[in-house]
Amino acid sequence: MDRYTRFKHWFQYKEEITDTYHYFPENSAIVVAMFRDPYQWVNAMQRKPYHALDHRYLSWEKFVTTPWVIERGENDKKLIESNATYNATCVHRFNFNEVVPCTTQDRNDWRNGTHNYTSRGLMYELNQDGSGDPYDSIVDLRRDKIKNFLSVRNYDAVAAFFPVQYEYAVSRGTGGLIGAIENVTGLYAQCKPSPPRELEPKQLDSNYIKWMNDNVDWEVEKMIGYYKAVLSTS
User: Fold this and answer.
1) Which of 91, 129, 148, 181 is the most buried (most CB within 10 A)?
2) CA atoms within 13 A on the CB side of 156
3) Which of 221, 216, 218 is nearest to 165 (CA)?
4) 204 near 179, Cβ under 8 Å?
């Protein structure tokens, strides 16, 4: 499956027995959480900002310093005007103060009187502290996303949890991961593992690397095996 309680890369939430579509019995799930090097991931998002239409075509400086949000569209604003935000169930079962847009209509055809975006999948996740505030930067979103993904290992339904670095899976192949899953399940894979292949990381601006060094939460990154780059002084 490409999801646990939410699709792929969205914030996950602890399953509840009342949520029949996303409920998993105790110790019934195996979760693989994949992470990518922060320098390469933010750079890739800047070049192709999935779901984040207000962050398209920005320089890296503007991209990393622009709050992770978009103005609410017409249908979200109707919820505000009718005082219906408190009980609103938004896309992917987010609360209103956790995501922009909330409504499916705005997600697929966003309008606010100034801009129009017709692009299925528009979505910005807001700060998960419940404030309804946006993240100041994509690196702050990444920090909380890492902690959220790692917390999934403590969910009642999760029997096994595998955090995987993208770089490791590419350079070593997926045979080891598949073997680990086979050991846990007692089943044998019906697919061929991807063979190892050479990584081709993008060359990055030294000023970008310095900004990342100064602004990424490296204590959280250490939890998934990533460390601050050392810039050459020569």
Assistant:
1) 91
2) 8
3) 221
4) no
**pTM of the predicted structure, to 2 decimals:** 0.91
Under 8 Å between Cβ of 33 and 152: yes
Single-letter code of the amino acid located at 89: T
Which element (helix H / strand E) includes 162?
strand 158-165
Query: With contact defined as beta carbons under 8 Å apart, do 224 and 150 qualify?
Result: yes
- What is the rounded CA–CA span in Å between residue 120 and residue 6? 17
Calpha distance 87→62 (Å, rounded):
35
Alpha carbons 46 and 87: distance in angstroms, whole number: 34
Radius of gyration of the chain (CA): 20
State whether residue 7 is helix, strand or coil: strand
CA distances to 30, 151, 159 from 156, in Å: 11, 11, 8
What is the per-residue pLDDT across 123-145, written as a single tens digit (0 to 9) for each?
Answer: 999 999 989 999 999 999 999 99
Tokens of 16: 């509840």
